[in-house]
Amino acid sequence: MSRPITVVVVDDEPAIRRLFHASLSRAGYRVVEAGTAREAMAALAIDKPEVVLLDLGLPDRDGLELIPLIRGAGAAVIVVSARDATAQKVAALDLGADDYVSKPFDSEEVLARIRTALRHRLASESVTSVVRSGAVEIDLVARIVRKRGEEVHLTPKEYDLLAMLAKAAGRVVTHAQLLRAIWGPGHESDVEYLRVAARGIRRKLEDDPARPSLLRNEPGVGYRLLAG
Amino acid sequence: MAVMAALRSDTENLHPGPFGTVTGHAVSLGTTALVTLAGLAIAGHGTIANIGLLYLLPVLVAATRYGLRTGIVTSLVCSLAYNFFFIPPTHTFTIEDPQNIVGVMVLLGVAIVASKLASHARGQALIARASAAQSAMLAGFARQLTGISTMDALAQMLCRTIGELLDGDTVLLVRDEGTIAVAASLPEGFRPDPIDIAAASLAFERNRPAGLGSDMGGASEWLFQPVGTGERVIAVFGIARQDAAMPLAQERRPLLESLLDQAGLALERIALEQEMAGLAQVRERDRLRHALLSSVSHDLRTPLTTILGTLGAMRAADGEQAQQLATTRSEAARLHRFVDNLLDMARIEAGALDRRIEAVDLSEAVAAAVDDMARTLGGQAVMVEIAPDLPLVMVDPQLFHHCLINLIDNAVKHGGPTPVAVRATRAGNALVLAVEDEGPGIPPGDERRIFETFARIEGSDRKGGTGLGLAIVKGFAEAMGLGVEAANRGGGPGASLRIRFEPAQLKELPEG
């Protein structure tokens, strides 16, 4: 690679920017700091980042408005949000953000989110055919799910849900996105359909449904398939 | 108040008394004498035919101006004078010609008919004048009312004006935290007796007049009239006479009622204005609180985020540093939890919780909470017993998540190293989620208290925590319409903290 991967950190707090700067530099990324939406847009044009870490509380503009612009410029967006700002997280994800981290964040978690976002960005053209998560293997081409090599029968909706999460492995997918894609546009708020399908998947695939290692429920936001 | 004086004098004219007024009789006698003198003068020139017609004049004057009795008296006097001076034999009271008896009868008849007509007409005129005066007075009263903006000023004006108008003692009573209080009175400083209070409460409760002169009588010397609009009684107006007589003549009741109707409207307007002012105050307070909350939230959390993040990124060079780093991290995390709890509590108390109720799978929710608490739990086991066929629960996922975290955190704190269990069971049509520990349990009588802000169970002070966790659980649960309860675990020591879902908060599974 001719140049290191660039991450733009957009946050109005210098201390938080410095913190990100330190941990991301150590992980080998080139870091550009932006304190306002204006600086972020400038950095987007000049530095052509692969990833933008975006705090939504900016002094000059609502951070949510920047998400489509950043996505349009081809960079992945990871939103940095307060713990209890569920509605804000969902709005950001529905606008095209790749993922989010809650404050206070763990540096390792941020790095993992960046890696996942980059992986999806690179793999977006060539679809992965098999996704693995622990003992579970999801073959997206043959539409077969195996656990420890043995085929597990899922209902069509359960499979659709698992497959959609597998395609976004490691990233959170919102309830509305899942419901729209699997049940149709009229069912975006029928979360109970999703709960039932998720319960079916967990019962058939998790070793201990009380400690799921496959499906992670993000309360009020969506589901995440734990890849690896 | 000239209008009122007029009202009063008109009323006197309308009822001149049983025998007429002295003036009336004097004037009548005078005109009769004049007419007689005139008649005598005319009779001196020869013709005396129809001279009796002259006497119609004093009779008509007396009957129309001074009423029936004066009219009859005048007609009798006129008959006598006519008889005495003009009917032969003159200068005697005997009548020879029966034709002249007719003359006397006609005078009497004219007196009666004319006085009836006149008194009727005068009555109509008086009523018209009185009602015009009353309208003018009510309009003036209404104008005065619109200028008043406080309850006190209105009460004083009402007592003074009506007291002067109806010539009595007045009082305006209002309800004040369950008791009845005097808002104003004329004369000032009136203290109602228990008897008066009882009558006034009756007027408040029944929204009807009570006391002396009403159909809900009693021992009170006061007549109490409710003041308000429609169904709502805002105050009660009382009127009494110093001599303890009937406070108000029957025909003055409508006047009092229309005055009080207007006062009721004004009272309601003032009450509404005060409510609006109160609302504006509340709004301003909420705005301040919101501003404070978000600024505290930002100013405390931002440095904490930086500290926690920096500590997370630090690598210890040796064992001693590793220990220091671990301590610092856990203390910073504790501080952060404390700030979060304070903010949550502030949001509960401000009623500023956003809720988005949706169907949530209990086992999924518990798994997410246990997962989030992995660091706090260390290696401690959490047993989860949730049957796979339980219905979904209708909650706000985020608030519920924090309820679970706080409940598990509490169980870990008080249960020590013993296992923590999360169980969901059906209880009739309802569903109960219990978080149980095997610690010392809850002292009897403290089952409710432990959900109070900053309540800590006896002897547990060294366990850390802020005493906010369970108060937050209760606040969040109640915001979602859920009940919380605490009890000791059946079959051994330990506490069991429960969230109860009523059938309306459950969603049986759809097929699919």
Helical residue percent band of chain B: 40-55%
Beta percentage of chain B is 5-15%
Could you give me the name of the CATH homologous superfamily of the largest domain in chain B? Histidine kinase-like ATPase, C-terminal domain
Oligomer: heterodimer
Strand order of the largest sheet of chain A: 2-1-3-4-5
- Which value, in Å, is the CA radius of gyration of chain B? 46 Å
Poorly predicted parts of chain A: none
Distance between the termini of chain B: 84 Å
Tell me what you see in this structure:
The complex is a heterodimer of chains A (228) and B (512). Chain A is an alpha/beta fold and 228 residues long. Helices cover 42% and strands 23% of the residues of chain A. Chain A folds into two domains: 6-123, 3-Layer(aba) Sandwich (Rossmann fold); 130-225, Winged helix-like DNA-binding domain superfamily/Winged helix DNA-binding domain (Arc Repressor Mutant, subunit A, Orthogonal Bundle). Chain A has helices at 14-26, 37-47, 63-72, 86-94, 107-123, 156-167, 175-183, 191-205; strands at 6-10, 30-34, 51-55, 76-82, 99-103, 130-133, 136-139, 144-147, 150-151, 172-174, 215-218, 222-225. In chain A, strands 2-1-3-4-5 form a five-stranded parallel sheet, sandwiched between helices. Chain B folds into three domains: 2-143; 148-262, 2-Layer Sandwich (Beta-Lactamase); 358-507, 2-Layer Sandwich (Heat Shock Protein 90). Chain B has helices at residues 2-14, 22-43, 56-66, 68-85, 98-146, 151-166, 194-206, 253-313, 319-349, 362-372, 374-377, 397-415, 469-479; strands at 169-176, 179-186, 210-211, 223-229, 232-240, 358-360, 382-386, 392-395, 420-427, 430-436, 483-488, 495-501, 506-507. In chain B, the strands form three sheets. Chain B has a five-stranded antiparallel sheet. In chain B, strands 7-9-10-12-11 form a five-stranded mixed sheet.
